[in-house]
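Researcher: For the annotation table, I need structure tokens for Succinate dehydrogenase hydrophobic membrane anchor subunit. Please keep the output clean. Sequence:
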Amino acid sequence: MRSPLHKSGDAFGNDRTPLKTIRHLGSSKSGTEHFIQQRITGFANAILVIVLAVVAIMLSGRSYADAVSLVGSPWVAVPLALAIVSVAVHMKLGIQVVIEDYVHAEGARILLLLLNTFFAVAIAATAIFAIVKIMLAVLTGGSVGTGA
């Protein structure tokens, strides 16, 4: 296997290293890893959606205080947080594939990939913050305000 810094040289004396080699965007260097990550998060989402459906059914018809108490339970908060992380990673990977396949301008592709990552992290962080806030309020006996 050749080093990425190996100068190949062509008939025209071009000794530049291909940019795709330096960025590790070669033919099959990351496609398999990406494929496996997508399948693992998809499988995790399938299991966690069942948990979320059970929680949603348990929340139906409850008062606000009872709903906060249920979501604040570690037995519910932890699977909710895991679902949020799994869904956010799965979303980021899926949108990344669309951007890489259909955005051909290099600058726009890089910008959109960065925005995609920031969006996924922002969504996950905000949702996890809300769950932790509810859980800590329940565990300490405080109340969770509605923000009004």
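Researcher: And a one-line annotation?
Model: The longest helix spans residues 106-140.
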